[in-house]
Sequence to fold (264 residues):
Amino acid sequence: MMDNTPNLTPTGNPPSRDGIRAVAFDCYGTLIDFTDQRFKETYHEICVQQSLPIEGITLWEKWMEIWRRQAAQGRARENPRDWPNNDNPRPLSGEGLTFRPYREEWPEHFQMCFRELGVGGDPLSAYDHVRNRLAEAAAFEETASVLAALGARYRLGILSNADDDFLFPCLERNGLDFDPIVTSERVGFYKPHEAIFRSFAEAVGVSNDEVFYVGDSPFADVLGAKRAGMRVAWVNRHGAKLREGAPSPDHEIASLEGLLDLLL
Fold:
């Protein structure tokens, strides 16, 4: 007798027509409204709070300059949000630099910024302010409704370059519940390294090609997910152009609502 029992996803529902069983989301800039503009606003607040004789945009640009320089020298554990230096690309597999969480990296980075800018800023206070802003950040308007719709069919999880001490309070504040939650701190690798993507699939109990990944960074998200064998939707809220050499996502959407047509 033929077995007509459907092959079920981890949520107990049939998989989509493309065999997708789980959807993994980047957090900041994808689900949570904390983009580069929010970082620039936060850096302005740091300058005001510490009475620094510089504008917030100056601090932000110095931050990014130092990070790019470290990436080009092979000393940055995670690249800036834009496309990396092609002369010294970051490793996407195998052994990388010894992992350090943001709570160790960022105070040192602020210290370098303040020193090169010639201002007497407090790097630990600056880091604390960024961490608090990340923990308090609000979700995009459509996040809750889209997750509710997808959650009826798919296993939903988080895959984020984040420290647990700001990511988890942020999710709780916004009433967002995921299983699994895979962070760079827990895995010991930053996206786009394949290890963090593989860890997500293993946590769900599916193969990489059964995961649909959603993120806003062409480098950390699109490149990383594609290299890991996952299908990926690039959330391009502001109509940005892909940089030369960047892989094309499987789908490009202007907001999370675009997932409803793709996955339901």
